[in-house]
Write a structure and sequence with these properties.
The complex is a heterodimer of chains A (568) and B (471).
Chain A: H1 2-11, H2 37-42, H3 62-66, E1 72-78, E2 87-93, H4 108-123, H5 149-156, H6 163-175, H7 180-186, H8 197-204, H9 211-229, H10 237-247, H11 251-265, H12 269-303, H13 318-341, H14 365-372, H15 374-384, H16 391-397, H17 412-419, H18 425-437, H19 449-497, H20 505-530, H21 536-567
Antiparallel strand pairs in A: 1-2
Helix pairs in contact in A: 9-10, 9-11, 14-15, 17-19, 19-20, 20-21
Chain B: H1 9-12, E1 20-24, E2 28-33, E3 41-44, E4 47-52, E5 55-59, H2 63-66, E6 73-75, H3 87-103, E7 141-145, H4 151-164, E8 169-174, H5 175-182, E9 188-193, E10 198-204, E11 207-208, E12 214-216, H6 220-232, E13 247-251, E14 260-263, H7 274-291, H8 312-318, E15 322-325, E16 331-334, H9 337-343, H10 368-377, H11 384-388, E17 391-394, H12 403-414, E18 422-423, H13 428-432, H14 434-443, E19 453-454, H15 455-461, H16 465-469
Parallel strand pairs in B: 1-7, 7-8, 9-17, 17-18
Antiparallel strand pairs in B: 1-2, 2-3, 4-5, 4-6, 8-19, 9-10, 10-11, 10-12, 13-14, 15-16
Classes of the chains: A mainly alpha (568), B alpha+beta (471).
């Protein structure tokens, strides 16, 4: 430490340039239990490579020791699934149902002492009130009800099956819960021997019933009974299905199937080997086919040119062309990268036209594209199957023909909006004030085709008016300047000639000036009246209004003149 | 998991009612409480009979091996077919199997146990006459039977259980079904290689298919007779087995040398019966089977040519032999012979001829693969593949070294098409007590308790009820 500080000192280095690295933390291993401190110290710093681990019985956690021991008792129980009320005994928690599962912590000692004997006394006579948990598993399949004698005689008679044997079969089916394998195994019908001798002679040649015969007979009975219970029209879906299945049972076919199954089971080793070989071959072929398909797809995707949809107007401008070039270059790059990666999917060169190259062939791509761009497809379709519409129809379907369609989506209302924007701010404001005077909102509420057209016309006429006013103002001011110059000249002339100033000339000029002002303001007022009948007439109206106001203005100026005179 | 909580009934499904499972076999009788993993009581089914002081005395359990009492004869209540013949003795042997270890002795009459002796003058004048204690009055009993047990024997069994032992509930299950349950299968083809019988039992949904049940008497005892035949024709000299009780001292000898032992001799009136000697010889043969005998693992028969063109016998010869020392000190290394003694289980022609044997040589239809084939032919074709995929091997004699491998090969050759899968627990006790373990599982299931035949039902319907209920 000191050495480093000295060196720094000598070399005029700033003291302690950076904080010294921390001293390595010494890993202090915990001394395992069961080894004395002294013995552990002898092991030195390095722990031995063998883990000193004592396998110890963990026992129960400490908190559990505080719990009160919950007693178990041998309790008798009955099983609801039994009819004879057999009482068996099993171990059960005492009071399991009565007490909450976790007993509240209570003063232990006293309770322990009090509890035990009392509980014993109480429990013993208590009958098991709970239903046996396993009784619910005692289930039987639902079988159609048994036939009566009458029903048997009417519907179920069979030449092959005697009544007794049918009964035996149905009993067996019920007993073994329709497990046919077991039923066929246990089937051992003993024909009654005490019938008359000739009948006995016929039956005594005891016939062996196959499972198919049994099934056919039973299904016939069950289906008949089922349809007696509910006619097929009233059956539930499941019942009907079952009924159909049972009616359609074909014992012969089933027998053939079993024979085939037996043949399949008893194949010789050679046959099995041959089959395995064939399967192997098939597997090889299919796997080869897979690789063949992937190779071919790779080839296709290399050859693939994206099928363009939509119009090509966007590529007709130079900007559009350069964009296309850009995207093509990009696609080329990524294609190279993809093919290195071995990916089948290649992005389409034209960014906007998605080309589907997934797991499908080339022929399918247009379809998926159409699905992607449904709108354009629809418009194309209408163009393709050309059908001239009458003007009325056109109006009805809202079909329009545009000479020039700009790319992208644009709104009619936007166009109307754009009209209200003039080149200069002042002009725009004037337009806006004119519109507000007409009580037309700047943004149209209902920009339908017709409204927009009318709005366009209105704006046009407003613009025209504004222009007219501008011109008239200009002319007015020119007149005024010239008049002033003329008056000056006359005054000079008169001063020079000593002629007194003529009085009434001044107000005349003033009136005209006022008139001009009014005419600036008034057309808008006239416009307001013309709002309902917007059109060319609006201009006439405005002119008419102007005329009116001119007169009123001159009247007004007349009064002001008299006022002036009175003041004087 | 908190050990103080009982397991959820839904995930455990057990409900133990302290039932006793009794699995009587030809060689041993197994008994224990349901829910345990091995029978607590395992005794030989053989019993001993001798005369002492003019009285006939009987001994049961392992005691029969111990003392060569004069005139002691050994008997078995069960015949070679696995069916009980001597019902009185069968009842006593079975009763011994559970009273000796399981139920224990009931607390006797306190007047008679010696602790409460009262002076004779105070003896009460009238003594209560206690009704006879019956050994099983508070335990349901599950018993097993072979699949071919006749109805009469079944009725007799329930009669004993109900009337002699007073069990509150009884059930009779087939060994095959239980062995299938022990390996967790409801449908299986159980191959049970017992002492007296080899049986093939097809099981569907927990029920045996009677038409498929096949059995032959070529089990463990037959293998013993084959070993005896081998010993008689042994090459340096014929080997005779001298049981331990006849030998007082022996000296170590070289392999194949004549034994040097001092023999005990019994005078004719003190000597035990020949059956006693046969029993003890059988014990030695059992050891021999465990240590030496080996099943040729296949895939082809021992007599056939192997895949490399070398005959299997030659191949077997190259494998190192296994030594065995007999009780008299004679010892020998057994080479290819040890394969031959069991080959006849799979290949009838390979049986070692022995005219003195009580076993007729097996017919080709009695080998295990043929029995399996016949068994499958007896069941519906639809379940055959399923059965072949669930072949359960059980029984003590199936523990012969290499047995399951060979069985697997034989079945694969016989049925190359369907998938063959042989299930055999590796644990020795699970294989020996397969049907007992299945019974232990069954009788401790909550859902099983509805199937017991209760005493009330028995009294109502008579012993015939067992035919209706234990299907």
């Amino acid at each position: 430490m000191a050495a480093a500080a000295d060196v720094r000192d000598m070399l005029d280095l700033p003291a302690e340039g950076q904080p010294r690295p921390h001293k390595k933390q010494k890993v202090v291993e915990k001394r395992p239990e069961g080894i004395t401190r002294e013995l552990y110290a002898l092991l030195g710093e390095r722990a031995p490579p063998i883990a000193i681990n004592e396998n110890k019985y963990k026992g129960r956690p400490k908190w559990m020791n505080k719990l009160r021991v919950r007693p178990w008792s041998m309790t008798p129980f009955t099983n609801n699934a039994r009819s004879d009320g057999l009482v068996l005994n099993h171990w059960q928690r005492k009071h399991e149902s009565a007490r909450p599962p976790v007993p509240a912590p209570a003063p232990e000692g006293s309770e322990m002492e009090v509890d035990q004997p009392k509980e014993d006394g109480e429990d013993a006579p208590k009958p098991p009130e709970q239903e046996y948990a396993f009784a619910k598993y005692n289930i039987k399949p639902r079988l159609p009800k048994r036939y009566t004698d009458d029903e048997y005689a009417r519907l179920l008679k069979s030449e092959d099956w005697s009544r007794e044997e049918t009964d035996y079969l149905v009993d067996l089916v019920t007993e073994y819960d329709i497990r046919w394998v077991v039923i066929a195994d246990r089937y051992d019908y003993q024909p009654p021997m005490d019938t008359e001798p000739d009948a006995n002679a016929i039956v005594s040649a005891k016939q062996f019933r196959t499972m198919e015969q049994m099934k056919a007979r039973y299904y016939f009975i069950a289906a008949t009974m089922l349809s007696l219970e509910h006619p097929p029209s009233e059956m539930s879906e499941a019942e009907f299905e079952l009924h159909e299945k049972m009616l359609k049972f074909e014992p012969d076919r089933e027998r053939d199937r079993k024979e085939l199954a037996a043949l399949q089971l008893n194949r010789t080793a050679d046959e099995v080997r041959e089959e395995a070989m064939l399967l192997e071959e098939l597997k090889r072929i299919t796997s080869n086919e897979q690789s063949f398909i992937t190779e071919r797809r790779e080839l296709y995707s290399r050859l693939e040119v994206p099928i363009s949809v939509g119009n090509t107007t966007m590529y007709q401008s130079s900007a559009g062309l350069s964009q296309l070039l850009q995207t093509l270059l990009q696609a080329d790059k990524s294609k190279k990268r993809r093919s290195i990666l071995g990916d089948g999917a290649i992005p389409s060169p034209a960014g906007q036209t998605p080309t589907h190259t997934g797991g499908l062939g080339r022929a399918e791509t247009p379809v998926t594209q159409a699905a992607n761009k449904k709108g354009s497809m629809a418009s194309r379709e209408t163009q393709q199957n050309v059908r001239t519409l009458t003007p009325a129809e056109e109006a009805r379907y809202g079909v329009q023909h545009h000479e020039r369609v700009t790319a992208g989506v644009n709104f009619r209302s936007d166009r109307a909006q754009r009209l209200t924007q003039a080149k200069s701010n002042v002009q725009t404001q004037k337009l806006a004030s004119a519109l507000s005077e007409l009580e037309i909102p700047v943004r149209l509420f209902m920009p339908t085709e017709r409204v927009c057209k009318d709005f366009e016309k209105l704006i046009q006429s407003v613009n025209l008016l504004l222009d007219a006013r501008k011109v008239s103002e200009k002319v007015e001011s020119e007149i005024r300047v010239l008049e002033a110059a003329k008056a000056e000249r006359e005054r000079k002339y008169r001063e020079a000639n000593g002629i007194p100033e003529p009085e009434p000339a001044h107000p005349q000029v003033k009136t005209e000036a006022e008139d001009g002002d009014a005419s600036v303001l008034n057309p808008s007022a006239g416009g307001a009246q013309a709002q309902s009948t917007i059109g060319n007439s609006a201009q006439d109206h405005a002119h008419g209004a102007e005329g009116n106001h001119k007169r009123s203005a001159s009247v007004l100026s007349g009064t002001s003149e008299s006022n002036k005179r009175q003041r004087r | 998991m908190n050990p103080s909580n009982p397991p959820q009934a839904a995930e455990y499904g057990g409900d133990e009612v302290s039932a006793i499972v009794l699995d009587p076999g030809y060689a041993t009788t197994r008994a224990g409480f349901a829910g345990e993993d091995a029978p607590k009581s395992l005794i030989p089914t053989y019993y001993g009979k001798y005369n002492a002081d003019g009285q006939e005395k009987l001994i049961y359990g392992d005691d029969i091996f111990v003392t060569p009492r004069p005139g002691l004869s050994i008997h078995n209540p069960i015949n070679k077919d696995g069916i009980v013949e001597d019902w009185d003795m069968a009842e006593k042997v079975w009763e011994h199997s559970f009273t000796s270890r399981l139920t224990g002795t009931k607390p006797g009459n306190p007047f008679q146990n010696g602790l409460n002796d009262i002076p004779s003058e105070e003896l009460p004048t009238e003594m209560e006459v206690e009704s006879e204690e019956k050994p099983l009055s508070d335990s349901p009993l599950l018993m097993t039977e072979p699949g071919w047990n006749p109805a009469k024997a079944r009725e007799k069994t329930i009669e004993i259980a109900m009337e002699k032992w007073d069990t509150p509930a009884f059930y009779l299950a087939r060994t095959g079904v239980l062995a299938a349950f022990a390996s967790g299968k409801a449908s299986a083809l159980v191959v049970d290689i017992g002492a007296s019988n080899v049986s093939i039992t097809p099981i569907h949904d927990g029920m045996i298919l009677k038409r498929g049940v096949q059995h032959s008497p070529f089990g463990g005892d037959y293998i013993s007779s084959q070993i005896n035949a081998l010993f008689k024709s042994n090459s340096p000299q014929p080997i005779t087995i001298t049981p331990h009780y006849l030998i007082s001292a022996k000296a170590a000898v070289e392999a194949g040398q004549a034994p040097q032992a001092k023999y005990k001799t019994f005078p004719a009136d003190k000597a035990p019966d020949a059956s006693y000697r046969a029993l003890l010889e059988e014990r030695t043969l059992g050891e021999f089977k465990e240590c030496v005998v080996q099943v040729w693992p296949g895939p082809t028969r021992l007599s056939a040519l192997g895949p490399t063109g070398v005959s299997n016998e030659d191949m077997a010869r190259t494998s190192p032999g296994r030594p065995f020392e007999f009780p008299d000190g004679y010892n020998q290394v057994f080479g290819v012979e040890r394969f031959r003694v069991v080959e006849s289980l799979f290949d009838a022609k390979a049986a070692i001829p022995d005219p003195e044997s009580s076993f007729a040589p097996p017919t080709p239809a009695q080998t295990i693969p043929e029995l399996i084939k016949a068994s499958l032919a007896g069941v519906d074709v639809d379940i055959r593949p399923h059965l072949l995929a669930n072949v359960v091997v059980t029984g003590g004699s199936s523990l012969l070294y290499g047995f399951t491998d060979r069985l697997n090969h034989e079945l694969m050759q016989m049925f190359p098409g369907p998938r063959v899968r042989v299930t055999a627990p590796g644990n020795t006790s699970e294989r020996r007590f397969g049907s007992w373990i299945g019974g232990s599982i069954l009788a401790s299931l909550g859902t099983f308790h509805q199937m017991w035949i209760s005493k009330k039902e028995y009294e109502e319907h008579g012993p015939n009820i067992v035919e209706k209920r234990c299907k």
